[in-house]
Structures are given as structure tokens and as C-alpha cells.
Amino acid sequence: MKKGIIGALLSFLLVASMALASCSASTTATTTTATTTASTTITATTTTTATPAIVTVTSADGIVSISVPSGWNLSDTALYSGSVIGVANDANSEYVIITERPKTDYGTNSTVSDYMNVIQSVFGDVLTNPVWGQSSNVTIGGCSGISAQLTGTRISDGSNMVYYVNALASKDYYYNVCGYTTSAMASSNQEQLETIIKSFRSTN
Fold it and tell me: Is residue 18 in some structural domain?
């Protein structure tokens, strides 16, 4: 009986030792997760718009000149038969003319106000409903004068127009430096036309 108990005890110890050996052989798996960071580079592109070259247009007598973008028609004689300079940008409905009149044609005591009255009379013949804005004194290219904006419907083709009229006086001449465009284009064209008008120069 004692021998049987001892045998059973030895069998138990053998099984326990095998179980422990099995447990100590456990394996630990390590998983490494690779993280990839995507880097995006944004390149800013700057677009440069070239400024049109400026061209100086001089009257045939060499007395007056203005400066306009090179893409314009620099000799549009059809704009007004009495002009000494006529330039046009037909694609954008922009036009500038210059008339030149000797002061002696209006009397020795005439003034630039008298010449403005003449200009207003002429426009009365080409517009059906001329409306003149408030006039102001200006000096352009060394010539003093009067500036006023005019709107009206052109008799020749029914177009609604805006005119930027400048009656100027030099030593011997009166000038009308006039830029104009359609009423629909006036807001976008006014700055360009006024820049050209302000480039006016007279050598007399």
C-alpha cells in the first residue's frame, strides 16, 4: 500500500514537470507598424502681365502730342475731319481726338471760355440730347483750360456716348482734347482715356 502511494506520487511529479517545461517555452510575437507620412509641396505660380508699350503721337505741324498704347490705331483720320490727332482702340470703343485752332480766329480778346462755348455748339449739332456735367478748371501739358463731361445720343448712328471734353489754351492756340467711348463702356474706359488726355503736350 505504501509502495503504491509512492508510485502515484512519482507519476504526478513527472507530469507536473512536463507541464512546466511546456509553459516556459512560450513565444512572444512583436508586430512593428510602419507609419508613412505623405509630404505635399505647393508651388505658387505668379503670372506677370506685360504692360503695353507707350507710343507718342505728334501732329503734322509738330506742335502737339499725346501718348497712347502701341496697339492703338495711331492715325484714325475718320474720327473727326477737323482734328490734328485722332487715335482709336476700336476693339474696346476708346477714342481720342485733338483739334487745334489759332486764337486769332476768335478775336484778340477771346478766352478759353469762349472756345468752350464753340465746342458746346458743335456738339449740339452731332448729338440729339447733349447733357453737360459740371465744368472744372484744369491744367494739362502746361495749358490751362476747362474740363467737362458730356453725354448724349449720336445722330449719325444712334449710339449713346460719353465724352471727356477739355478746352485748353496755349500762347497762340485753342485745343479741344477729347476722349470718348460708348456709355456701356464708360466705367471701364474712363481711366485709360483720362490718362491719355493728361499726356497731352504743346510746344507753343
Answer: no
pLDDT tens for 35-73 read 444 444 444 444 556 677 999 999 999 999 999 999 999
Pair 106, 113: CB distance under 8 Å: no
Q: Is residue 49 part of a domain?
A: no
User: Do 78 and 63 meet the contact criterion of CB atoms below 8 Å apart?
Assistant: no
Give φ, ψ of 90 to 5 degrees: -60, -35
DSSP 8-state class, residue 105: G
pTM recorded for the entire structure: 0.76
CB 52 within 8 A of CB 74: no
CA–CA gap between residue 116 and residue 22 (Å, rounded): 118
Give dist(CA 94, CA 86) in Å, integer.
Answer: 11
Q: How many domains does the chain divide into?
A: 1
Helices (H), the chain: 2-23, 112-126, 186-198
